[in-house]
């Protein structure tokens, strides 16, 4: 007789009424039935917290007034009742304090990106994780798309030959007006350096573009030349930026991220060019991957469990036959499903197939190099070697 897999028990900090990303996480985590929400502190506002808890079907006993109470209360429960993993969907400045406290209390953590507000802060969290038995996952949702994995496989199999150029762009238009001045909470905290950190647009969406480029290409960016801009009236953080970059493997690239591109929605796009072929993928058309081969007609690969020629790692992230679109929620659900499997296996550190602390450190090194490049006069600015920094932090 086969023993049924138990559902992984999940807690959540943040994500109350008016918060877009919290509801997205709850929907994605529930999609495959592998996790269940058992406790939360959705908001510091008691009314918001209570209403969101009621909507999610939580008992009053497992609805906590703040994140400190949640971690302490869950730690005191029996092993078969307490949460397994804490999901952190707060603004950036709370990512590390909450994650660190949860890991030190023996819980796993799945956190929204970026991992921290500074590289030093992320490095301290990495050292805490290294000394624990916990798992840490980072919600780089776009790395859960099946055709992103297909693209990665084609590159690693040599279908493009030697990579020469990587172009990634992420234009949005939602901050094209002074939205933060109207009381919009999402715009408010993203443009406040005390909450978001030293970068606005680049920390919010530039890290997605950067992570996607490194993930698909298998290359590591070593240096960049950046120009960041502020177009919003009296805005204090970047809302637009461009960077040239070079990789350790010899490719050059460009990265653009902007939240002031009028009329744009969520147009993340990547193109990779090698000496034997090229690839193109767009987040707003995620089930299509364009493959251009040298001296051959272009071919279009389509997502679907019945589609020929797809790699196993793409197929295992698909649920439906071709012609039935899968999208953003399914991509995040893939990360949650892999994370839940890793929890049940008793893995520690990183969950296979899920972005983790290494990606978090890389993202913060990218942000700090951008800011240093913007402030300085050197043509090229090196990214810090986060593997060496991680090792140094772990031994202090």
From TrEMBL:
Gfo/Idh/MocA-like oxidoreductase N-terminal domain residues: 9-137
Pfam families for this protein: GFO_IDH_MocA (PF01408), GFO_IDH_MocA_C3 (PF22725)
SUPFAM superfamilies associated with the record: Glyceraldehyde-3-phosphate dehydrogenase-like, C-terminal domain, NAD(P)-binding Rossmann-fold domains
Domain (GFO/IDH/MocA-like oxidoreductase): residue spans on this chain: 150-280
GO molecular function: nucleotide binding
Protein name in UniProt: Oxidoreductase-like protein
Species of provenance: Chromohalobacter israelensis (strain ATCC BAA-138 / DSM 3043 / CIP 106854 / NCIMB 13768 / 1H11) (Chromohalobacter salexigens)
